[in-house]
Design a protein that fits this description.
Layout: H1 9-23, H2 30-34, H3 50-56
């Protein structure tokens, strides 16, 4: 995620594996089993056709929301108490 925290993550994961060997059982953390996550994302969850689909609908490549939506969310009157 790019957050600076001062921890050596690889060292912490290594220590977790060593603790499991020392105590003879698995720890509750899945991070020790799974290790580091991929920074670029997992190819299994990639959407290769997304850029073509966005072009088909006339959206910009980096667009997250429809253009007709405003910058600020507005609650319809019927939902206001």
């Amino acid at each position: 995620m790019g957050i600076e925290h001062g921890w050596d993550v690889d060292r912490v994961l290594w220590l977790g594996r060593q603790m499991e060997r020392t105590i003879g059982r698995r720890l509750r953390s899945e991070a020790i089993l799974n290790g580091r996550t991929l920074k670029e994302g997992h190819p299994r969850f990639a959407r290769p056709g997304l850029s073509k689909l966005k072009a088909k609908f006339g959206e910009d490549p980096g667009q997250q929301l429809p253009k007709e939506w405003g910058d600020k969310a507005v609650l319809p009157e019927k939902y206001k108490a």
